[in-house]
Amino acid sequence: MQIIEFNNMEKTKRTIKMKWTFLITIFLYSLRPILACTGVVLVTPETVYYGGNEDYFQNFTPHMIISPGTNTGYGVIGLGWDGSFMQTGMNEKGLCFDGFATYKLVITKNKNKPEYAGNIVDRALRTCESVEEVMDLFDQYYLPWMESAQLMFADRFGNSVIYEGDDVLYKSGNYQVCTNFYQSIQQTPDERYNKALSLLENTTDYSFDLVKNILKETHVEGVIISHYSNIFDLKNGLIYIYKKYNYNEMMVIDFNEEIRKGTLVQKLESYFSITEIEAVDELPNSFTLAQNYPNPFNPTTNISFSLAKSSQVELRVYNCLGKLVDTLVNDHLAVGTHTLEWNGKDTNGNSVVSGIYFCELKTEEDWRTIKMNLIK
Length: 376
What we know:
- This protein is α+β, with helices and mostly antiparallel strands.
- It has helices at residues 22-31, 120-127, 131-138, 191-201, 208-218, 255-259, 274-280; strands at 2-5, 38-43, 48-57, 62-67, 76-81, 85-91, 96-101, 149-154, 159-164, 167-172, 175-178, 224-233, 238-243, 251-254, 264-267, 288-289, 301-307, 311-319, 324-333, 336-342, 355-362, 367-374.
């Protein structure tokens, strides 16, 4: 496994040659907003902050997940989707993680090592208190599921690491930024990364407010939204949360006090005011078809669309020659946002070949089309 130490973040800003063809590069660039999470580690004289924007489709519900420690593991508080898994979290020792969806990057190393049976991120939070301990743990296993995901860890000592397939981006001190592109293979940074880096490089006032401002400047709105922004104070055990890019209302959680409540999975909105909750739960007022996510994909992808009124809906997939591949929806649907998964198969259940496919959403009054890229 290659370890890349970033002692000068300017290394990642330089203009570089792209690995893909020009056509694919332009296509992927247009899709960057869909992969929209942002994470930043900032080391100050007083503490270490980790700030993250967690971005996904509007119809997902963020939850607070509290899991106390045991005789064999540290306590953990995390945030995740629909209460099913943690997207980000920190443990009682001041170690935190965050996950980022990315385009596929084939993992070739560590294949001679065993696959980890279970959730290795959970094990890291339960048993590790430093980034170095996480690196030792991960180096023992082959982790093929990370071909389409990045992981970032940070600790209270000021160290951080980003896992990008076979490469490990380690940094000690100052700051490190992660968005949804691969720094290790020198892809062109996305707009959110450049914004964050610009804010960091043009100040010496490393503070909580700087992290908050970075999250504010890099949040997203639309079909994909920043459901919440979180800031972990890793030395002092404090968690700050802003819900749906409202940076005027902040919830503060003391880790030690919250963990004493026992095991708990609770909707994040319940921690905020009723007024704010009612304001963000409005029904969609437009007819939209979001870009599929992830894209490119293999073998499955999520397709999300919104209806301003109940309608007869047809959602179909066509190949680049205009031939029908599969009908995903042909039904009367209620107003709201709907999400489904296409498994990359045709109407006969056969896996389709790599290439460009078109998804068409059609009602009695309107239609929308998106381009999808299947890469095997």
